[in-house]
Amino acid sequence: MDALQALAAQLGIADLRGRGFLSVLITFVTAGLFTWFFIPRLRAFAMQVGWADQPNERRLNKTPLPNAGGLAIYGGFLVSIIVAWALRPIAVDLVNIQVLAILLGATLLVLVGFIDDQYGLSPLSRLVVQTLAAVLLLVNDLRVDLNAIPFMPDLPALINQPLSTLVTILWVVGLTNAVNLLDGVDGVVGGVAFVASFVLLATAAQFPDRAAAVVLLAGLSGAALGYLRHNFNPSRIIMGDAGSTLFGYTLAAVSLLGTLKVSAGASLLVPLIVLALPLLDTTQVVIGRLARGIRNPLRHPDKTHIHHRVLARTASARRTAVILWLVALACGAAGMSLQGLRPEAIGGTVLAAALCLFFVAYRRIRAQNLEDAREGNA
Q: Fewest C-beta in 10 Å: which of 17, 23, 121, 331?
């Protein structure tokens, strides 16, 4: 036990039997198990009521595929946070209002995303709701502080305040849409969101004053992992806009939480690097569409996303997902290194995330093989 405790200390875990660590572990496991076991029931109901994406030239599915996975992710995330609140981990009470603001904004986007999945909404209406969700964070003092970004001169308050407000809205709305636009191949967004939230969780856990961020990220990463068990190719359910906007918004919002920001200076640089994949993907897609003379790049879907390009080269949704997971892990390691974490903590986090991804992918493949075998014997 002493050797295990010594190893945990190298990873930044002060006490394996301490209340803080056990609360985080229970939150993560609760989110994962709830999502894992709830999805089959949700899937059956979704098929009955017609909550499904129909096959078309842009989608990989050849039959109707339930698109209500975002509801299961949200359910697992919310249940785990309620459990965490009941356990009362250290320091969470200090930022309850900000945590509630994040949960309220996430709830709003899940609701609107689900309506969009089933009935379709205009891009403008979705953008308005996303902006309102970002404003909700601002009124609860969750914002980008430009004066905390390194290598930038200090701005007077009259300039810093409105400019910080604008940057905050762009950050939240931009990342929400970036994660949404990355959702095009089975397992990609689920895996990338898991890696990003798990890495940010491990980073925040290195510091005793970041309990609120740790709890939220534990719930989000656990829910992503539970969902991924059913989404690795061949997928049995997809998250839809409800799930992808939940991930994008929550990651953006938690990165603004005072207890997650890195010490004076680095501000959003660590989350920016950890979330580099969806941000770079959206940037290159928008620039490419504008270069082709498309005035509204968000209303003209195409196959120029990174996941489409990788899929075209690999001809395999599974390999595409794994490659992008590895890219996300590399970005996560770079972000942790920028934060100044010890190599042991970085290596342990990357290894743990990789093992979790391997486990759910293996279980999905195994389940599919058993299902194919039963059909073959029928």
A: 17
Mean predicted lDDT score pLDDT of the chain: 87
Position 29 pLDDT exceeds 70: yes
pLDDT in tens, 140-193: 989 887 776 666 677 787 888 889 899 999 999 999 999 999 998 999 999 999
Q: Locate 273 and state its tokens.
A: 């690097």
Give residue-wise pLDDT tens across range 106-151.
999 999 999 999 999 998 999 999 999 999 999 998 988 777 666 6
132 Cβ contact partners less than 8 Å away, ≥ 6 residues apart? 108
Distance CA 200, CA 50 (A): 36
Report which of residues 220 and 89 the model is more confident about: 220
Single-letter code of the amino acid located at 186: D
**How many other C-beta atoms are found inside a 10 Å radius of the C-beta of residue 14?**
12
Long-range contacts made by residues 333-336, C-beta under 8 angstroms, separation at least 24?
A: 333/199, 334/273, 335/199, 335/203, 335/270, 335/271, 335/272, 335/273, 335/274, 336/199, 336/202, 336/203, 336/270, 336/274
- pLDDT (average), residues 9-22: 58
Within 13 Å, how many C-alpha atoms sit on residue 349's CB side? 35
Residue-level pLDDT at 264: 38
Sort 61 into a burial class: Cβ within 10 Å, 0-12 / 13-18 / 19+: middle
Model pLDDT, residue 269: 74
